[in-house]
Design a protein that fits this description.
Blueprint (H helix, E strand, L loop, with lengths): L2 E2 H11 L12 E4 L5 E2 L2 E4 L4 H10 L3 E4 L16 H11 L3 E4 L2 H4 L5 H9 L1 E10 L3 E9 L3 H10 L13 E9 L16 E13 L3 H11 L7 E6 L3 E17 H11 L6 E2 L6 E11 L4 H6 L4 E5 L14 E4 L2 H5 L2 H12 L5 E3 L11
Parallel strand pairs: 4-5, 4-17, 5-6, 14-15, 15-16
Antiparallel strand pairs: 1-3, 2-6, 7-12, 8-10, 8-11, 9-10, 12-14, 13-16
Helix pairs in contact: 2-3, 6-7
């Protein structure tokens, strides 16, 4: 099977679109060309010098990492730090580097879903669903063509609400139009006012898919000019957002749960607040640095909140109402390459994908 970088990145971006990454992020193709023919692919949490060296040894010319090697702008490339040295080494060896970071964090079946599986949590929900990422598309269509046009919109990514797909609303009415002399009407005659039995159709669409959905609608629609409106709405998107929350199948004694947590994520240590709960049932969690979601976890009455990178004073914010368990940034996201591997192997059979054997955790425990 011959693949180009763009074949792989297009698949990943269809699952976790770049448009859903956070504003500070730098997901996407960081080094290399989309037209590069891929030999083999190396998957890693981070891309550092040792990761590039590993790629060279196994003959991989594409590295897919969770964390971007470049966050801010590079003004020089002279090898004075590990970021510049990593980029230089990749360019010299014609190795592309791709990052799939907060867009994979925000994906419903992404990083946090992987954590849920390893904790034994069924049917987790997004802890902080995103607002202002949806629009309502309203368009008008001849009755006989409404099913075809609506289906095109569904296939392009519209009409999803939580666990439901192909959601829409229709109402019937009459549409009127007068074709001009340069028009090409699908029905009626130039210069004669036409009446058509039409449907008004309403569908929710994600903003990042707006252009492709509008294109799909216009392609399937019989009219030369398609009457449509887009309304920004403040509803949350239940399929996109930060962190997750869910229940264990059976409550666990708090000590037993912490032992389970430490084993599942191979933690060197767990930093935690006072164990004010005797049992753990409802668990909130966020891969990476997730202290910003503590209040969300408290408001949804989680027994424990699991994440990484809590600062000293932030532990006081537990206010004896929840247990904070900081397992470490690397530890919480270490299985992300496994998630990416599963997504790729499902779609590209008989192609060589490798999980990195380099431990990129910069933190050691004594």
């Amino acid at each position: 099977m011959e693949l180009k970088v763009k074949d792989i990145t297009s698949l990943l971006e269809g699952i976790a679109p770049l448009g859903s990454q956070e504003s500070y992020d730098n997901s996407g193709l960081i080094v290399g060309n989309h037209e590069l023919k891929v030999t083999e692919v190396l998957l890693s949490l981070d891309c550092i010098e040792e990761t590039v060296e590993e790629a060279i040894k196994i003959g991989a010319n594409l590295i897919i990492a969770h964390h971007p090697i470049v966050f801010g702008g590079l003004k020089q490339l002279n090898g004075k730090n590990y970021v510049e040295r990593t980029v230089i080494k990749a360019i010299k060896n014609d190795i592309a580097i791709y990052a799939i970071h907060t867009n994979l964090d925000n994906y419903k079946f992404g990083v946090n879903y992987e954590i849920a599986k390893r904790l034994g949590i069924s049917n987790p929900k997004i802890l902080a669903p995103k607002k202002n990422v949806l629009k309502k598309l309203v368009f008008f269509c001849p009755e006989n063509d409404s099913a075809k046009v609506t289906q095109a919109i569904f296939e392009a990514g519209g009409g999803n609400i939580g666990e439901y797909s192909e959601c829409s609303f229709e109402s019937s009415g009459s549409g009127y139009f007068l074709p001009g002399e340069n028009s090409k009407p699908s029905s009626g005659e130039i210069g004669t006012r036409e009446k058509a039995n039409e449907k008004r159709i309403e569908v929710l669409i994600p903003i990042y898919k707006e252009s492709q959905i509008i294109k799909a609608m216009k392609t399937a629609h019989p009219y030369e000019e398609v009457a449509h409106d887009l309304y920004p709405i403040s509803n949350v998107n239940q399929d996109e957002g930060s962190g997750m929350i869910g229940d264990l199948d059976k409550p666990m004694e708090v000590g037993a749960f912490l032992s389970h947590l430490k084993s599942a994520f191979n933690c060197g240590i767990i930093r935690h607040t006072e164990l004010i709960k005797k049992e753990i049932k409802t668990v909130a969690f966020c891969g990476g640095a997730g202290s910003f979601l503590l209040n969300k976890a408290k408001s949804q009455q989680a027994d424990i909140y699991i994440t990484g990178d809590f600062k000293y004073h932030e532990f006081f914010d537990a206010e004896k109402s929840i247990i904070i368990a900081d397992i470490g940034h690397f530890e919480s996201e270490q299985y992300t390459p496994n998630l990416i591997l599963a997504l790729l192997q499902k779609n590209f059979i008989n192609f060589a994908f490798h999980l990195s054997k380099v431990n990129t955790n910069p933190i050691n425990y004594f």
